[in-house]
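Dissemination and training. As part of the outreach component of the grant, students in the summer workshop were shown how a complex can be specified as a set of sequence lines and then modelled as a single object. The example used during the hands-on session is reproduced here so that future cohorts can follow it. Participants entered these lines:
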Amino acid sequence: MLYEFLSVEKSSGVLLYEQLYDKVRLAIGKGLLKKGDKLPSIRRLSEDLSVSRTTVESAYDQLCAEGYLSNRPQRGFFVEAEQLDIPTSPSHLPSEPSRLHKTLVRYDFSSSSVDPEYTDIKFWQRLIKDVYEKPYVITSYGQPQGEKELRSALCEYSRRVRGVSADPDRIVIGAGTQALLSVLIGLLDGYGYSAAMEQGFFPQGEQIFRDFRYDITPLSADKEGIILDDSVRSRVLFVNSSGSMRGSAPIPVNKRAQIIRWAKRRDAVIIEDDFNGELRYTSKPVPALQGMCGSRVVYLGSFSKLLLPSVRISYMVLPPSLSGRYAERCSNYNQTASKAEQLALAQYISCGRLDRQLRRLRKLYSEKSAVMYASVKECFPSDTIVDVIETALCVRIKLNTETSLDELRKRAENSGIRLGKCREKNGLKYFYLSFAGIASDEIPQAVNCLYREVFQEPFVEKYH
Amino acid sequence: MLYEFLSVEKSSGVLLYEQLYDKVRLAIGKGLLKKGDKLPSIRRLSEDLSVSRTTVESAYDQLCAEGYLSNRPQRGFFVEAEQLDIPTSPSHLPSEPSRLHKTLVRYDFSSSSVDPEYTDIKFWQRLIKDVYEKPYVITSYGQPQGEKELRSALCEYSRRVRGVSADPDRIVIGAGTQALLSVLIGLLDGYGYSAAMEQGFFPQGEQIFRDFRYDITPLSADKEGIILDDSVRSRVLFVNSSGSMRGSAPIPVNKRAQIIRWAKRRDAVIIEDDFNGELRYTSKPVPALQGMCGSRVVYLGSFSKLLLPSVRISYMVLPPSLSGRYAERCSNYNQTASKAEQLALAQYISCGRLDRQLRRLRKLYSEKSAVMYASVKECFPSDTIVDVIETALCVRIKLNTETSLDELRKRAENSGIRLGKCREKNGLKYFYLSFAGIASDEIPQAVNCLYREVFQEPFVEKYH
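and obtained this result:
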């Protein structure tokens, strides 16, 4: 036998042809076999190794298919690959144990979940099941722009509930606001690669613009919303029309008109993020900015707090100019949202269930916000400032405490409490406490527990 | 009554307070009410209109909430908004009838669907149902990087089936290759904003890079794959390791090594699109390039032809350097793939069902490609060149016909035949005929019909 390294072990449990295949690759990798070397014939090697010809043939075929060997008619098999300075086998990294050591969460004040009792899981499950019972629907790709049925339903819904002026051809579906922004930003050629947005309010949006190498013009806000004047040179404005760092009072109509006039002067495009815009419960929801100036506003709508957070469907309404541009390259974008979930949502909207859900949730969140407000007022010191932030489904507390945010976060974690967004400004600490994921009747004790185990001082005495 | 335009119609069916609200907005829009004007008191107006005080109060409250009016204590309600050069109501555009006049598709040669008989719908449906029976799972947001269960399953699967070296922390899930590229490109700061890729092979990928304002360096290909030398200055290389315009022979190992050496010299990153790489049926699948150089290759994997085209889940394996960068900003990206579908897929992989499906499909597609090849050979003229393109699940035919592509497409459409990709080069016309969406026993008659109704000449005699 010419090549003693071409051996196989019959009892190893690995298929013989795979062993042989590996040995040849390894030999080439180590330089034992060099480009141009002739390999033993199939018959010869099968006799030397006492294996079937099929075994050798399979190994050689695969090696030829991958370019390690060539089969020269009438002459035999030759090494084609050169010795490589690369590993011939992938290293088998063991998958490491989960780093996410999950503590049991007793109370979730973050906005990362919703109250299971008020989701429409059963109904949604039935809709999903119905979709799966139409095989032709889920064995084919969806429309890049999103399913027509959903776009039609959203057109009607957004007009009725948010005053948005759309038609289905100008609606684009996507798996979340970021996925939509990725498509949208590609259409904004000619708007100068600079975007103005309220500082710190929507980091995920900022990230996408930065990824697209946009400059960000940070805007401040007063109690009426973002402050905008002609010193702002960007021609792309990202605005949340129903909330900001300052709170969740809707932008008053004068400010809205001012924003639109600014955009007209600058020939700018406005991207309106209407996150939870329909979830106002103390007054009728304020119509979207888009309804005032559909030719210049891109409207972004989503559903995570209305349906299930696990369903990733958002939509945007493009002004006619951008929808023309989109149509030209539509075929170059794949849809990101699940087709089955899109069709379920279309049905959910059309049969009136979303309206019903909206009514239920407005009522629920109105009650919950009142309970949370009262509980905070009761448990926390009297100098704590408490505000209800409607569309974010939370109350904000402003506290004057010496304890650092890190320390407070650590205490919360140790107590099984998940905190939401918190920040520090002008010596005050701000905490956004969401009531979305805590059941109504648990709110008082949750807030009480939060105060006692995280905020109450002197903390040291209690535990040591 | 001071303002006769503030009237309501009791029999109109529209809520009275909404009518009143609309009338005030309209009056401001028309200039009939000007900034600073005082409105009638609630009591006065309710008497004038013979409506309840609550009606007027509700309308005024809403108008105040939106900034049209202000309520000055002890003085009354005043107009705050200025006359706006904007419509006060969104125009109610009727949604136009669908432009997509759907012709019944008899035979689908495009790659837009799969054979319903060979999908795993029932099993998949059960998995989805199981997920929905765990409410805590779907009432909370998913992990931005993708569900841990799925990342672990993919780590094991991609190693075993594709020779990919990964660990779950370096895997990022997304709703399709494009969604992943959007995240990835954001991480490629410092690689010079220029990407090299095979010309015309993957327009959707090109689009994303262009949207991110990358220059594209178009590469040609010979029979072994893309041609790469030091004149290529890009430091981002996008490559499909298991197919190209030239066909679907795997890139031979020499060429692979050459690509990796090129990347090392240029300090470049390689993005390997392994589209359908596991779906080889004439030989054992060729391991992914990533296994040869995990420190420099980003691996992209997807499932659309293995599962259901309507399920949008892809994944990428980042090299350690990029995964560190990703971890820093992970929280700024939302996950795009449906959480329910991710968890179903994790289960589908872990219980071995994906392996089973892969075996079934390899066998099925091997048979179908043989039938399609034979049918084309039988029906089409003998000078037609036919190739099987494995990973694309199609055969490619090269024809010498005078008839224009447009005319051929039109004929196909009229005959209820959906054509796949076609192009013209050096006087020859290329057609990619997918067999994925046509049942095995229908292929012969589908191909026969395709030839007779679309390609056969003289076409005129037959129909006129």
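Residues 85-103, 459-464 of chain B have pLDDT under 50 and may be disordered. Students were then asked to discuss how this feature might be tested experimentally.
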